[in-house]
Every structure is written in structure tokens, then in C-alpha cells.
Amino acid sequence: TATHRLFNDVGIPFCELPERYGSIGTPMLDVQCTFRSPAKFGDKIELHSSILEWRDKTFIIEHVMQQGDRVLFEAREIRAWGVKDDSAAYGIKARPFPAEVREKLARWTK
Fold first, then answer.
1. What 3 state SS string does the chain have?
2. What is the pLDDT of residue 63?
3. Please, are residues 81 and 20 in contact by the beta-carbon 8 Å criterion?
């Protein structure tokens, strides 16, 4: 996904989250998407992602797909920093983001 790519681009591969940070990933809590214009197979498109807002245990990320100046879709996700917690419902609990993760993603924050 685009969010995974963002983490990979700053040197935090999703597959390393459990070992490096004790995290199971960034579960999606909410998503909104608006399609603006169609695209077809073979079109050259660009996907731009940025973090709009940091909260203690969650962040809001925006994705905009474009073909040139034409916006194809805009999406926003709210994601949490998830850790395994057997005492929590469904075995997952949101925890504050590690400072290192926030610092590395700072260049993607609007």
C-alpha cells in the first residue's frame, strides 16, 4: 500500500516493525476516498502521500493520485500505531508512536 511505501522510503520497512518496535503495524481505523476522474490501463500516474496530522496514537495520511495535473482520486486514512496486547479486545492496542518513527516520517508531514 501507499502507507507501507512511505514507511519503506524512510528506512522503516513494515516487515521490520515487530522486531524493531514491537508493533504489529498501523491498523486502518477509517478511510475516505473520492474518485475525481477515470484512468485506464497503461496510463502513467503518480501517487503522492503525506501525513496531515499526528496525534498521540494515530495519524491522518492523505493520498492523491494524479495523471499530470488531473486528479484521479483523493483519499484519507486514519491509522493507529498497533501493538500486540493479549489483555485487549482482539489482542491489539493502540500505543503512542515511537519518537524515532515520527522523526523519520517528519519530511512527509504537511
1. CHHHHHHHHCCCCHHHHHHHHCEEECCEEEEEEEECCCCCCCCCCEEEEEEEEECCCEEEEEEEEEECCEEEEEEEEEEECEEECCCCHHHEEECCCCHHHHHHHHHHEC
2. 97
3. no
Q: pLDDT value at position 78?
A: 98
Alpha carbons 2 and 83: distance in angstroms, whole number? 21
Query: Which residues contact residue 79 at a Cβ distance below 8 angstroms, ignoring those fewer than 6 apart?
Result: 3, 26, 27, 28, 29, 58, 59, 61
| Length of the chain (residues) | 110
**Amino acid identity for residue 59 in this structure:** F
pLDDT digits (tens, 9 = 90+) for 9-68: 999 999 999 999 999 999 999 999 999 999 999 999 999 999 999 999 999 999 999 999
Cell triple for residue 103?
A: 522523526
β-partners of residue 50 are 62
| pTM of full prediction above 0.85 | yes
